[in-house]
Amino acid sequence: MHNQKIHAHFSTECFNRCWGLIDKPNRSPEDVEDMLLLAQASLWHWKQRADCKPLNLSIGYWQVSRVYALAGEHEMARLFGNRCLKVGQDNKLPSFYLGYAYEALARAELLHKNKDGATDLLAKAREELERVTDKEERQLLEADLDSLEKSVPNKAIDSDKK
User: Cα separations (Å) of 12 from 41, 43, 86?
Assistant: First the structure.
């Protein structure tokens, strides 16, 4: 039981401290390293908890994917985005979580400069968004998708039309 209290403390503490670094403007290289370590530590402690559910794993995998994307590591962002999607699909998690799995994968593809892949994944995220019924969840996911779509490069202009 004592270990469960420790895992409960650190899974939450590391997650929240990581979130603070995600939101921090102008992260230093040390902040980026800490952000990566905190996300991984949070996920590991969640996986040790007796009360860990697929939903917790989905959120943990999403956060790890997000921090790798912020750190510019598209392969690891994709790896954990895929884990997020798999746990969501395998456990039939609500559309809010599936939408965020696609959002994480779209971020990874944008980082990899795969505009078409990112566009396809954003479309899948939008399909999931349409099924989200909770107003607050819908607003959160929609805001993140809107923001992410702004980073998708526009289609190249046909040079003959210039």
Answer: 10, 9, 23
Residue 31 structural domain: 1-52
Comparing CA positions, the residue from 97, 149, 105 lying closest to residue 128 is 97
pTM: 0.91
d(CA 105, CA 35): 19
82 and 17 in a single domain? The answer is no
- Token reading at 32: 């980026």
C-alpha–C-alpha distance, residues 66 and 137, integer Å: 18
Whether 24 is in a domain gets the answer yes
Number of domains the chain is built from: 2
d(CA 37, CA 31): 10
Q: What is the mean pLDDT of each run of 10 residues along the chain (162 residues)?
A: 88 96 95 98 97 98 98 97 98 98 97 94 97 97 94 55 38
